[in-house]
Amino acid sequence: MLARQAQYQNGTNEDDDFDDDGMLAASIVEAIQNEDDDPSQTLHSLHSREDDLQSRLQAAATPLEYQASLEARYASYDNYCSLFHFILNSNGPVELDLPTYYWAWDVIDEFIYQFNNFCAYRNRLAKKGQNHDEIASLKDNQQIWGCYSVLNRSQMNEQLAAIKRGEDPNTVAGEYGSRPLYRMLGYFSIIGLLRVHCLLGDFTLALKTLDDIELNKKAVFARVMGAHFTTYYYVGFCYMMMGRYSDAIKAFSHILLYVARTKNFHNKSAQFDSISKTMDQMYALLAICVALCPTRLDDTIHSSLREKYADQFQKLQRGGPESLPVFEELFQASAPKFISPIPPDFDNPANNVDPMQHHLQVFLSGVKNNMMAPVLRSYLKLYTSMDLHKLAAFLEVDAEDLRTKLLVFKQRSRQCKWSEGGLLSGEAVNASDLDFALNNDLIHISEARVGRKLVDWYLRNLTRSYA
Amino acid sequence: MPSFDNAEDRPEHITNILNGLDRYNPETTSIFQDYVSQQCEYGTYDCYANLALLKLYQFNPHLARDETITNILVKSLTVFPSTDFSLCCHLLPPSLLTTTPASSTGDLHEAVQKLTTLNTQLESCQFKDFWNTLDSDDLYADLIADVSGFEDTIRKRIAVVTNSSIREITREMLEGWLNLSDDEFDTFVKDTAGFSIEGNTVIVPLNKDNEARPTITRESVKFDQFSRVIRRAYEQPA
């Protein structure tokens, strides 16, 4: 972290130019103070006096410790407000060269992380029911780190991004659009929005925000590893929650493969620790998706998946009620830390349900429905036609029960799959390699096979014979 | 191509709100509420807009109207087997979904629980149980009262499910699934669903989904793959 701070310092050494702006910013901070009746006022005014723009820029990208006190959290929120306010509401664009690409990402990243952290902190407090002073202070300051203001901050940036989009690429860039600061901030704040919406449980809107961003290796965010990675994690997760498992699998395998191939370039960077943690989470999510929608994975990914989650993966693939706790375990370990959009009910702690539990339950209710699928699959694969009653006897279930299970299986194997356009669009396709139809009590089964791949073999041998 | 954020009959002013900053503006709540009642009345459906309303409720719990919430949930039942119902659930206050009711939200809590039961039955294709549950309690009738043509829409969705997985089925069973009998059944099956009836069997015409034809995906060979071989042939004439 220190190293990165140094980068910012080195990157911007035109302090002289900033004097005016610095004063402007300071006055804005003061204005905000006067509006807010803030317990951390004293702390804050201390700040603004010695504060120049540079130190604030750094502060914005510096992580807040986990144990930080409530005051520190308030103060940091005010800091972000004044910073964003300064950048967005000054007369005309701010003359400011971005230290690095990373800076913009770090600011947005940290902003959302602190928001997330604050909500978790708030919920913890409400649950414990102790520490009444802090609770009282939270009650008085519900505006701080409120969802509205967070969304609005991000939203403002999105407006900027809209300006940028209009004039992309660089040729006719407008006043705002041509500044890298605004471009990058706008860009990353869209990704930030993706995260916030996802944390709030609105998965469709989360994907919708990415409408204007192209997902590929050449995209701007690919230059910042953390951003690249985070984006795919959240996109994949949103797809999974929407029941579009094949799209989720695609997103996860894309980025996991990318990281696996470029590992050697990244493992020295400071971000790598957090990346490898998220990578494990993505493997877990991938295991869930593959269990729900059997798909052939890339060999590299498949072997690392089995390396990391051998037991769990096997249980998931076997299905049945025993798999449910495994789904639960993996989901809890690898889902983002959901947040509750409204302050908890401090007076009735019983009413506060952990948002994670909430989303987990909704997700599991969908999983429960189709738990028999792996077993059905293993039998159906063996036959081309079969009597319903015979299969029911094998499985030791009621024939009518089996019929509904088969219907569910069929419905679930048809999924909405993305092919082009916005991330939310897609067509219903049969995502399973197994298909069947019921003719009264007779099940007709068919399988989609992949033909032998000859071209590779042919070409390889051809080159060999040339040499 | 169908896209989730599109709806055919969405009026322009709704589109504008959805695409602008106003979608976070609590004042638009009433506009969305009217839009929901409009959907209930005319049998249209716009999940994306409804989710936006649920989100507004999420941020402003004091504005939430129980009736609108249940209407949205009932509407989302009419498009099973899509996941709309659970997408809505993700945006509801968590206390509504727990099995122990919170004191303040008694009625709504019960309604949501009941609708969840219906959804589970539909999703697990237990259609006969679904109709039985629907008839078992007056509360259900109240819940679906606002949504015009609820039962018929559900029947159509069940017909779609049948269409995709079944070639032939006994009349008795399909009657149970659709909760129709005699002439009503005949008319629905022939005219709305497009199936034919022979004696005691209902025949579903073959289509892409119930055909279950084995497919073999062959590799598609592109000329580019051979470019190196061909170039080589030019470079080093044998």
TrEMBL record, chain A:
Subcellular localization: Cytoplasm
Family of the protein in this entry: Belongs to the eIF-3 subunit L family.
Keyword Cytoplasm found: yes
Protein name as annotated: Eukaryotic translation initiation factor 3 subunit L
Signal sequence extent: none
GO cellular component, one term: eukaryotic 48S preinitiation complex
Region (Disordered): 1-20
TPR repeats: 229-262
Domain PCI: 251-452
Subunit composition and interactions: Component of the eukaryotic translation initiation factor 3 (eIF-3) complex.
BP GO terms, sorted: formation of cytoplasmic translation initiation complex
Biased composition (Polar residues): 1-12
Organism in which the protein naturally occurs: Drechslerella stenobrocha 248
Transmembrane segments: 185-207, 219-240
Record's function text: Component of the eukaryotic translation initiation factor 3 (eIF-3) complex, which is involved in protein synthesis of a specialized repertoire of mRNAs and, together with other initiation factors, stimulates binding of mRNA and methionyl-tRNAi to the 40S ribosome. The eIF-3 complex specifically targets and initiates translation of a subset of mRNAs involved in cell proliferation.
Sorted UniProt keywords: Cytoplasm, Initiation factor, Membrane, Protein biosynthesis, TPR repeat, Transmembrane, Transmembrane helix
Automatic annotation (TrEMBL), chain B:
Keyword Translocase: no
Pfam families, alphabetized: CSN8_PSD8_EIF3K
Every PCI domain range: 45-220
Alphabetically ordered keywords of this record: Cytoplasm, Initiation factor, Protein biosynthesis
GO molecular-function terms, A-Z: ribosome binding; RNA binding; translation initiation factor activity
Subcellular location: Cytoplasm
InterPro entries: ARM-type_fold, CSN8_PSD8_EIF3K, eIF3k, PCI_dom, Transl_init_fac_sub12_N_euk, WH-like_DNA-bd_sf, WH_DNA-bd_sf
GO cellular component: eukaryotic 43S preinitiation complex; eukaryotic 48S preinitiation complex; eukaryotic translation initiation factor 3 complex
Alphabetized SUPFAM superfamilies for the sequence: ARM repeat, Winged helix' DNA-binding domain
GO BP field: formation of cytoplasmic translation initiation complex; regulation of translational initiation
Family from the record: Belongs to the eIF-3 subunit K family.
Subunit: Component of the eukaryotic translation initiation factor 3 (eIF-3) complex.
Protein function: Component of the eukaryotic translation initiation factor 3 (eIF-3) complex, which is involved in protein synthesis of a specialized repertoire of mRNAs and, together with other initiation factors, stimulates binding of mRNA and methionyl-tRNAi to the 40S ribosome. The eIF-3 complex specifically targets and initiates translation of a subset of mRNAs involved in cell proliferation.
Name this protein carries in UniProt: Eukaryotic translation initiation factor 3 subunit K
Native source species: Drechslerella stenobrocha 248
Lineage start: Eukaryota, Fungi, Dikarya, Ascomycota, Pezizomycotina
